[in-house]
């Protein structure tokens, strides 16, 4: 029984494809996840940012009053009012960005 050239080529292609799937997925499975990217790490980072934000707001009553006053506004109004406030108060914007930076770093790393 002899095989035609197209049948041989198909067999080689299927074999190569199967090997690529087998060994390619094995390489992916063996790769270590980035360090400190677990759900627990995210929770710890988020809680640290949350605590730092609360401390900041308690120590800056005017900022706390502004953000408290957003309650009840629709999403578009809240977003526009927040942007206007932060544009008018660049030091507050910088402070809050600094507080939030660990979450930004986490997202970039993980």
From TrEMBL:
Keywords: Signal. Gene3D superfamilies: Haemophore, haem-binding domain (1.20.20.20). The keyword Lyase does not apply. InterPro entries: MHB, MHB_sf. Residues 1-31 form the signal peptide. One of its GO terms (molecular function) is heme binding. The keyword Signal applies. It comes from the Bacteria. Residues 36-110 form the Haemophore haem-binding domain. Pfam families: MHB. This is Haemophore haem-binding domain-containing protein. It comes from Mycobacterium pseudoshottsii.
């Amino acid at each position: 029984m002899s095989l035609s050239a197209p049948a041989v080529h198909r067999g080689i292609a299927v074999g190569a494809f199967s090997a690529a799937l087998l060994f390619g997925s094995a390489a992916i499975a063996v790769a270590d996840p980035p360090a400190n990217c677990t759900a627990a790490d995210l929770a710890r980072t988020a809680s640290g940012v949350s605590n730092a934000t609360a401390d900041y707001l308690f120590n800056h009553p005017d900022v706390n009053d502004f953000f408290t006053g957003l309650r009840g506004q629709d999403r578009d109004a809240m977003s526009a009012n927040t942007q206007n406030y932060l544009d008018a108060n660049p030091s507050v914007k910088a402070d809050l960005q600094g507080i939030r930076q660990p979450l930004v770093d986490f997202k970039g790393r993980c």
